[in-house]
From TrEMBL, chains A, B:
InterPro entries: ATPase_NBD (IPR043129), ROK (IPR000600). Pfam families: ROK. Keywords: Kinase, Transferase. This is Glucokinase. GO terms for molecular function: kinase activity.
Amino acid sequence: MVTAPLGTDGYVVAVDVGGTSLKGARTATGGEVLETVEVPTGRGADAVDQVLSLCRSLAGPRTVAVGLAVPGLVDSDRGVVRYAANLGWRDLPLRDLVADELGLPVTVEQDVRAAGRAEAALDRDGAGGSLLLVVLGTGVGATVVFDGLPVVGDTSTAGEFGHVVTRPGGLACTCGQRGCLEAYASAASIARRYHAAGGDRSATAAEIATSVDPLALQVWQEAADALGLALAGATVLLDPAAIVLAGGLSRAGSRLVDPVHRSLQQQLAWRDAPPVRLSRLGSRAGQAGAALVAWEAAAALGTGRPAGRTPAPRLRR
Amino acid sequence: MVTAPLGTDGYVVAVDVGGTSLKGARTATGGEVLETVEVPTGRGADAVDQVLSLCRSLAGPRTVAVGLAVPGLVDSDRGVVRYAANLGWRDLPLRDLVADELGLPVTVEQDVRAAGRAEAALDRDGAGGSLLLVVLGTGVGATVVFDGLPVVGDTSTAGEFGHVVTRPGGLACTCGQRGCLEAYASAASIARRYHAAGGDRSATAAEIATSVDPLALQVWQEAADALGLALAGATVLLDPAAIVLAGGLSRAGSRLVDPVHRSLQQQLAWRDAPPVRLSRLGSRAGQAGAALVAWEAAAALGTGRPAGRTPAPRLRR
């Protein structure tokens, strides 16, 4: 649940624009999710129409803002989706399109950063709003959050954690490099490696995670070790208060967290590893983050504070 | 030169407490360094006495604050030096010691973070006050600066970039790990590796940097490649506006910057490398950063803003 900043009343509409489905919600000041809608995502202009239609259907007279979470390369400052492969969007001025249609303030945040904001807001008492969120799905992405705000980067491309090289000269990655984390620890890579090594060709990454087949155990452990190495590098540089694992692979629960934490600690000889835990918001994190950013924008309009620097509101589970 | 925030008058005293020498300065509102003092550093209580004595000698009736930059593990919020091996300090409440003695506001910042603040303030027009500063000296340290503020980390240990593993299973590092960046790219490691491989045993890292001996070229290139790999990992995660190289090895100039930039680009198949440049402030960076933090504290006392969140004042060369 998302709690609005003090002094903000009404509702926000939040939509997580995923490659598979659009997840929309209307959330109230008290943090209650009042209404949710989920539809399969189309592509290109169809997906834009779906976003508009979803926002219209969820918005009401007391809606104060709309928050969108979008995958890919997102320029939040200008509200432009520079590139979203799964949606077929390139240089799409999504904020202005939706704002013109609905006559409301609209925020656009990249989905991983939105999720990171939501997790950090939820975790504020524990980790001071600072953490490293790693999303382990078909690919591997991440966001670094400091004091509640995600690192966007100079070219809006921060968080490409899947392309940290963990095995110099190792497996070829789709990005053109060798030895990327993603070549070992994404759901797609884990399944591919298990199949290529002679494992059951119908097994998914989720099944490999819980299998006791020695081959599955080995592929899973190699994924955990690559993750541990990449996380060790991020830990010595950034000293995060917490590492949060999200995405499809996180459904493996302790079968993921325990070996990753062990591997991380083994690769940090001289300091304790930070706590590693599962995402608390799971598949709702992107939408919760979109709502959070929208609340911030609404609060900023009310108080004149710039949205990006508004203290993040509290999120409760 | 350090320019004070608007509305701050007077002088600050800034001291960079190095393991080799204490570098003190008195700087004016306009940014002018009015007076400098440098003395060889003692150890333990002697070094504390030297800091007090240096501050007393530089302070005057219009001094508004004292800024100290200290190596090691520094808790800036409490003004405590938790551990500084070269100085023989442990859990030293330096801020309160100096404040009690001088009756002035005192700030204590870790030296690499202070340098990063100063470089970022200087670079604000170029890089928006965000950068990765890497100090290549006897060891290898770094700081990540966002919007003018350095990342401190949850346990104040962010920036241990020398212990990013660049060669899994590689050379033993003093920290207990294998393959750390520092085992390849610190001045000490470069010299040790060159000597061990049969190179002239009197050659320093600086001499190896400019040597045309194939063995020297190889050791130097291996250092650049390890650095390139570690920087590539930081780049994909953080997308910094600039990478700034400082410390003793940076005196090699383009002999350092060019191969590091080349290696970084080679290890980033799918994106342009951020610009890599030398520190603009060189050995004055720690002191300039200490002055900057002291000016911020003085401004914050004047305006009631918390020091850590005061926009960093402009720094000119």
